[in-house]
Amino acid sequence: MRVKRTFFMCALLMLAVFASASSRKQLFNEGWKFQLGDTPEAKAGTFDDKAWRTLTLPHDWSIEGRFDKEAPAGNDGGYLPTGIGWYRKTFELPKDINGKKFQLYFEGVYMHSEVYINGEHAGGWPYGYSSFFVDITPYIKAGENTIAVRVDNSKQKNCRWYSGSGIYRNVWLMQTDLVHVANWGVQITTPDLHTAIVKTTIENETSEKKTVEVRTEIAGRTISGTVELLPDAAPTVVEHTFNLPDVQPWSPDTPNLYTAHITVSEDGKEKDTVEETFGFRTIAWSAEEGFTLNNKPLLLNGACVHHDNGILGAAAYDRAEYYRVELLKKAGFNALRTSHNIPSETFLRACDELGMLVIDESFDGWREAKNTHDYHELFDEWWSRDVEAMVLRDRNHPSIFCWSVGNEVIERKKIEIVTTARKLASLCRKLDYTRPVTSALAAWDNDWEIYDPLAEAFDIVGYNYLIHKSEGDHQRVPSRIMMQTESYPNDAWKNFRKVQDYPYIIGDFVWTGMDYIGESGIGRWYYEGDVPGEHYERPLYPWHASYCGDIDLTGLRKPISHYRSMLWNAEGEHLYLAVKEPDGYRGKVKTTLWGTWPTFESWNWEGHEGKPIEMEVYSHYPSVRLYLNEQLIGEKNTEEMKAVFSLPYTPGTLKAEGIREGKVMESKTLETAGTPVDIRLTPDRARIHRDGQDLSFILIEAIDAEGRTVPIADNALTVRVSGAASFLALGNADIKDEDAYTDTSHRMWKGRALLVIRSNGKKGKANIRVTLEGMNKTRSVQIQAE
Predict the structure, then answer these.
(1) How many CB atoms lie within 10 A of CB 601?
(2) pLDDT tens across 120-129, in order?
């Protein structure tokens, strides 16, 4: 009976591929087999993979491992495993495949992928952040076919942050006629807010001359024309220009999107159809006017972000990518830099839909190494292909306002560096003339001015931690447009003022918007007696993540996030209370260059009664009054949008009042929490899709008898997930915690933990039970999968 059921499920999977073979693009994430370790014989179509694990993509095998001080990726890779893995998938194609073109489209495989179809090598890509196509037409047959993908992330170190390992982004099966729209073959530009120019590249892979009609529709208006395609000739570009007076512009505040529907037909029979989403928006940049969007000045409150999704690792689940952008948007950012790699398509789609500007960055370095096996091994052979993959894939996203082609390149003093920079920038402009090109520059010596020829290669010059040189540079090179592409979290006020005061500085991008795995301990605080120093000086195990983000690994905002958002956003939050950990409370505090003093939204400091403690009130108001247990502590003027108070610690209630012209405009309180007696479960959404791709993020909090989060609770907890979802990850924001994120038991940190579940194809209720150890308390929540 079990054998029959297994056969039936496999038949259903093959039938699904067969039934949808007429569609142009089909998500191909389900039904993969996986084996960790090198198995060269697995490329054969006849290989027996029954004993292999079955999984659904996206998949990152590194995050499934345990933290290990001896892991080859070391400090940079968050002490998680890497290695070699194989993936296989068997599927069926219909009988009528002649005259069709079949491709696999991989959005991202980390890294050194090799793709085999029915035992024959069909393609691959070495760089783990590029999307790529594999033409499988010569290797397939009607009926059963087998894909095998070898992924090699064994050469370490190859990245300065956590990369993950595996087919960590979506895979698609594509079918087209031999006359079709080219891959990434649609370019849409908007020279003004009511004009769209659509250029569609058509390929004829037949041996005959073809006459086709190309029809484009936008917002109810259609333009069509006939074009002749010669056999085995260069692709043909068809251009249609639309003037649409009633469309609405795209911006971070109003992210209006439109879809271009493009159809290619021959003798009235449809050959291909493509849809491309875009937005009507214009950008401009100058040293005099700064950055303008839709003819209006806009200051960029930016954040650098790596590609991982915290406790989920590098796996680019669609919902996780949207969730990340949602968190950054709520934190007040209006721009992101994808440092230092090409992001997922879903991440950019989320930025389009939610309203977030983006610097799209290609790679970390060029010809000289930062790590033993990093991009310098690929640069000469692959840089043009990787830049082309980035620009062609991403150029229709309205969120992208700038291309970046590097970060702190090591060889910046060499003569050939300027030529290399010009080649990179020139290729970007050739493929997309509508956006500026940048590269993040840095110097750790007194020779900054010698990089002027390198800076001239770019439309906007990226300054990493060097904005203090901006005024002198402006006097020397008045036409230079600058943005601080990386900055220290502690410099929030100073950088904000620079951008406010000087139009030639268009924005600041803090390092970083969110905590990430790897670059372990870059933003940590530590205590005298711990391993000292910066992350680049020595291994810092068990620190395995960054802690320099405004948002922690569980998606919660730190006090610095509230402060930064108040600086840049007149609307929204106007008052916030934060308490600095007293020096000596747990030890003498030390911080790194990227670290901030340990500061929390907490009034629980047991054992410190009667001793001085410092607190900060972030405020939009001219002055702040502070009360403790209804007794006035004092009133202070707000400077740099904060008021700092020192007072003896006494449990109870803190209250801050924002004062303008003697009137109380707003108040906020912070209370001492009691002993944890219960837990609270808060899902981000009550309903998810049952497609096996959707997620729910569930915040777990230890609470006292009054329902207050207990910010000192570190109880262990265990979760159980059943029904229409499966367990995916569990973790906290402590970057020294050594429990694996795939364990169903974990301890809390600062009274909180995060659980992530994934729909599993079933319809109905997903049941989540969480037990808090030490008090035998269990709470449940249900998520509806539809």
Answers:
(1) 17
(2) 999 999 999 9
